[in-house]
């Protein structure tokens, strides 16, 4: 009997990529009613990864999460591209020891400067998903648009290119948010309010759509929404990246959303490569409290009749 036909497709991977793929083969889907249970790692300088991690948790409560950050180097924004890349790689390598199925770069700055290096080192064994500010959906909503970002990102060639490519026909303002990411990292409510008010004062009053161009900002979205409404006199739509990034990570893994899956997913935080509990600042946000919630205990066995 002739063997079934198979296409002889050449392997275009480099020897280094092929070696990594052999060392880190794709994990098998978990058995049971929710096939495709996965483990997803996220990296960031600090707590900005909480928003995307919580989005993954809501979409797949059974997914394992590895949070790897760099508190000793936070913030990454003012650092050189080379330094950012080296720090992002260190966070990714620490997370890789936990054998994740995919890695989310939950930081806009790291996605700009380190995404190529991360993909060169981890893929194809571990898919790497970057974070892009939601300029395109904000512009599609009609605008006028304001892009809130760190001072280092505001006006950068990368941000200007995003606005040119995805919001070219929409009135768009770039708003630097001085000190906001640092205040969010510390869960310093007073400093958050001060920074949000300063950014709101720089936002044109006609603005109707605001892009949250730093992942930290999504943790204080409601405060931003309220302050902007006072500034503009009308509701303002906020556009973050967390849900879209979480959905893309699941798509890359072929894992469908299953928000009704059992909440059995574990959470492991690595700070500068060392396992630590979630810091008190993280518990100041709903996203942090969601991730800190313990998995439910198994139901007791029924007594024998």
UniProtKB/TrEMBL annotation:
Swiss-Prot/TrEMBL keywords: Isomerase
Pfam families registered for this protein in UniProt: Asp_Glu_race
Composition-biased stretches (Polar residues): 1-12
GO BP annotations listed: peptidoglycan biosynthetic process
InterPro entries in the cross-refs: Asp/Glu/hydantoin_racemase, Asp/Glu_race, Asp/Glu_racemase_AS_1
Region Disordered, residue ranges: 1-34
PANTHER family (UniProt xref): GLUTAMATE RACEMASE
Name of this chain's protein: Glutamate racemase
Species in which this protein is naturally found: Streptomyces aidingensis
């Amino acid at each position: 009997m002739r063997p079934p036909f198979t296409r002889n497709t050449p392997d275009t991977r480099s020897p280094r990529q092929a070696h990594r793929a052999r060392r880190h083969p794709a994990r098998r889907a978990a058995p049971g009613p929710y096939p495709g249970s996965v483990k997803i790692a996220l990296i960031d300088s600090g707590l900005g990864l909480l928003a995307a991690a919580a989005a993954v948790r809501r979409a797949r409560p059974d997914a394992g999460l590895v949070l790897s950050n760099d508190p000793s180097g936070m913030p990454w924004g003012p650092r050189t591209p080379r330094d950012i890349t080296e720090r992002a790689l260190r966070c990714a390598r620490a997370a890789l020891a936990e054998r994740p199925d995919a890695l989310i770069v939950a930081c806009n700055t790291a996605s700009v400067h380190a995404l190529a290096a991360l993909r060169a080192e981890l893929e194809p064994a571990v898919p790497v998903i970057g974070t892009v500010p939601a300029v395109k959906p904000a512009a599609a909503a009609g605008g006028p648009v304001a892009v809130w970002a760190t001072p280092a990102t505001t006006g950068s060639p990368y941000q200007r290119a995003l606005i040119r490519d995805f919001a070219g026909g929409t009135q768009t303002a770039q708003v630097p948010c001085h000190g906001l990411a640092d205040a969010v990292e510390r869960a310093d409510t007073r400093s958050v309010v001060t920074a949000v008010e300063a950014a709101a004062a720089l936002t044109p009053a006609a603005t109707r759509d605001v892009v949250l161009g730093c992942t930290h900002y999504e943790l204080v979205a409601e405060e931003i929404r309220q302050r902007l409404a006072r500034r503009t006199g009308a509701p303002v739509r906020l556009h973050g990246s967390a849900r879209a990034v979480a959905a893309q990570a699941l798509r890359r893994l072929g894992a469908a959303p299953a928000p009704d899956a059992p909440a059995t997913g574990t959470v492991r935080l690595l700070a500068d490569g060392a396992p630590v509990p979630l810091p008190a600042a993280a518990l100041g946000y709903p996203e942090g409290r969601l991730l800190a919630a313990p998995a439910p205990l198994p139901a007791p066995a029924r007594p024998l009749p």
